[in-house]
Each structure stands twice: as C-alpha cells, then as structure tokens.
Specification:
Layout: H1 2-13, H2 25-28, H3 39-52
Length: 69
Amino acid sequence: MKIAIIILMLQLSACSSLGVEPWERDVLAREDMALDNAPIDTAYDEHIYFSKEASSGGRGFSGGGCGCN
C-alpha cells in the first residue's frame, strides 16, 4: 500500500515543473529557434503544397486544390 502511494505521488509531481524558466528564455528567443523563422518562404511552400496535392484543409481554410470552396 505504501509503495502505491509513493508511486502515485511521484506521478503527480512529474508535471510540477512545466514551462520555461526566466533564465531559459534568452536561448529560446533566438531567431534560429523560431518555429517559423522565414514566414514568406513558409507561406509560399504551403501554397504550393496544398495546390499541387489537391488536399483540403491547411491553415484555416478549406476546399480542394481546384480553387473552389
């Protein structure tokens, strides 16, 4: 019984340190750490991908690759 309580307490404390600490923010704020450091290139690549693949969806719009909605 004591082991089960210890395991439960360890599992509950595993998520206690989520988030970015203040001293880690300078590293994560660098331009090369950005998820989208070239927004124009990303938009261009996504436009080509979604129009050539004739896939629906994407970033906030729906419809097929033919241009119709």
